Amino acid sequence: MAASFSSTTLFRPNLNPPKSFLSHSDCAQKGFGRVKCHFINVSAHSWSSAANYASIRHVAVKSSGKHVVVKHLLRKRVGLVKCATIEEIEAEKSSIEKDVKERMEKTIETVRANFNSIRTGRANPSMLDKVEVEYYGTPVSLKSIAQISTPESSSLLIQPFDKSSLKAIEKAIVNSDLGMTPNNDGEVIRLSLPQLTTERRKELSKVVAKQAEEGKVAVRNIRRDALKAYEKLEKEKKLSEDNVKDLSSDLQKLTDEYMKKIDGIYKQKEKELLTV
Q: How far apart are CA 235 and CA 243, in angstroms?
């Protein structure tokens, strides 16, 4: 993986603040272009520092033997500063890497599911994965309300858990783009796969190629999002330019790996479609 992070510079308060500030009140105009100024002693104390936090609690000015609170003089500079630790930066980097892998894996699963829903010369229960049935007013997947099997290489058998859903299942299959006519005998539904013509195989091959390209686009978009996340960390000074270059290189290797996976399952599906 990428090289380890360079050490992060943390905010450290100056525990020895300057002993004097220039007092505007002690400046007097002495003729054109001449200004005479006196210095007054200023002490800053009660610093609070814990972990990666630092703040100024009290500032006092000694002038003419008296202490005067002048918090308002440093009001614009006083504040709470939090700096990320190496552990926090590593956690952010790991989170980005994990998200990338999870999303790319889901993309591969989606491509496979889309390919499986396209029928070839052999029957496969996954061909019905996209069929939704109106069951008691709610659309549900066919496989969630019925058992699907392949008694023969060219047929599918659908046995609903609830026989009252047979009509709804039959209607859903007819309205789908499967191109199959269901045979309902009142107990089960049988589907016979018609022989694919050469023209139909070529059409389905184009559909598969389009789905494969959509999968690749999804992987590229995931890579783009990760690069933006790394660049954001660089702008926040949490990663150096070299860190980002190394991480980008690793990300490209991972992207190429998933591109090859998509190519592999695409070629396999294309072979199934075009083999008579």
A: 12
Nearest one of 25, 45, 44, 43 to 35, comparing CA atoms: 25
Answer yes or no: is pLDDT of 154 > 90. no
Quote the pLDDT of residue 108. 96
Instruction: For residue 154, give its domain range.
Output: 125-192
Q: Which of 122, 183, 113 is nearest to 141 (CA)?
A: 113
Closest CA relative to residue 179, chosen from 134, 127, 112, 129: 127
CATH of the domain at 134: 3.30.1360.40
The number of domains in the chain is 2
Q: CA 190 to CA 129: how far, in whole Å? A: 16
One-letter amino acid of 33: G
Mean pLDDT taken over the chain: 75
- Give the list of residues 6+ apart from residue 154 with CB closer than 8 angstroms, or none: 121, 122, 123, 192, 193
Pull the structure tokens for residue 30: 């002495």
